Amino acid sequence: MANSDDQNCTAHVALIPSSGMGHLTPFLRLAVSLISHVRVTLITAHPTVSLAESQTLSCFFSTYPQITESQLLLNTFDAPSEDPFYIQYEAIRRSSHLLSPILCSLCPPLSALITDMSLASTIIPVTQALNLPNYVLFTSSAHMSTLFLSFHTIARSSGESDLFTVPGMQPLPISWIPPPLLSEKDSLFRTQLLENGKAMLQADGILINTFERFEQEPLASLNAGEVLTRLPLVTSIGPFAPCSFERIQPLTWLDGQPMNSVVFASFGSRTAISREQIKELAEGLLRSECRFIWVVKEKKVDREDDKVLDELVGEEFMTKAIDKGLVVNQWVNQEQILSHPAVGGFISHCGWNSVTEAAWHGVPILGWPQHGDQKMNAYVLSRAGLGIWAENWGWGGEMVVKGMEISEKIREVMENNQLRAQVVKIRENARAAVAEGGSSHGGVIELIQIWKNKS
Ligand code: UDP
Ligand code: UDP
Annotated catalytic residue: which of 116, 204, 302, 373? Predict the structure, then answer.
């Protein structure tokens, strides 16, 4: 991105993510990409749910002292049967009235707020009252945004069919729709998604961490009014480049491995895997005969991941794994691992950041979606040629996938030269999108211009 007249620039943009590393990370990367153009404030909700979020935030603010932190201290909200990250979305949503004084006190006055899509319906009214432009950042795929935005118009239309019709898209197998959306039972997931999708019509713009060549069709449909009429402009501004503050760990073991020989297995920051499935995955990794790095996670929230490794994967596996791989049950720097030349494949739950990071580094994915938007994302990556989707494995927890089957799929990804060549092309396209002259770069430059004209 071209440097600008930083000294004279008075445009000031605030960003407010919701919760979980899957939302925080893209907001931090976007914030960093804006600092050479505008003044940036990050509004953070406290206390955070995970340890990873609080550690990342402290590292972020010490690396970028020019970014101001403004803290939103949350009113507690309790819903014991719900996911802790969705409870946190709800706590932030219910604290939205506290935002007005924060937004008004920032200096110089704000030109715009960038809001997480999971907070849209309660924050847009606040910014409308202040006459402050509000741009919603969608942290998942453009395909998922199509469902998210239109769901309030189609929620009851599935009937008995095996297909689900989303405006602007080919009918989708109903099994790809996040299950809570189809349930009769009210859940935070469903209620918030309905409200946020509807409210995003009132945003000043919708920004998506994707790029045109990756998701051309849904981006075109969204802006052609085929999904909803009167939708604000949807701009693809990704994939967000990883930032230097995230690169903190030595990768000594990886440095000693041959190129493309290691498969990396990780299911993101908030997905728990059952003990039985952990056992089969262990077996699959060993049987594949590939080298591997595996991040084992048995609990959704990192603070609760208190079991020692031997207990999780068994002593026998630990002994057998010594020559073949690394197994950890703590936070690793995924982006840095994916950037390493020894890594040649990625077993992923298809969280959108994981998909965009794999595209950025050109690592083929074996997609194993677990919940939420992940089947939609798995569809995107397999369609684009970034990997394969083991579609008959279903959602996480729906069945226990056997080690033998896992090992076959790992080899299918690791030994596929055609896939490897396609992925190199996707990496080039991803980087070209955010380089000067690229589609996503152009989108950001236009936004910056709008904000500067406003200030
Ligand atoms: N991540 C990481 N180390 C871990 C687990 C996750 O660096 O041990 C990062 C990963 O690189 C990504 C984010 O956390 O940037 C997770 O987001 P994603 O959308 O992939 O999945 P989620 O965690 O939201 O399910
Ligand atoms: N979502 C939401 N409100 C909810 C639950 C989910 O807005 O109560 C959004 C969420 O942010 C994501 C999508 O719906 O984009 C799919 O949910 P998932 O569980 O995959 O969330 P993520 O891991 O991205 O937070």
Answer: 116
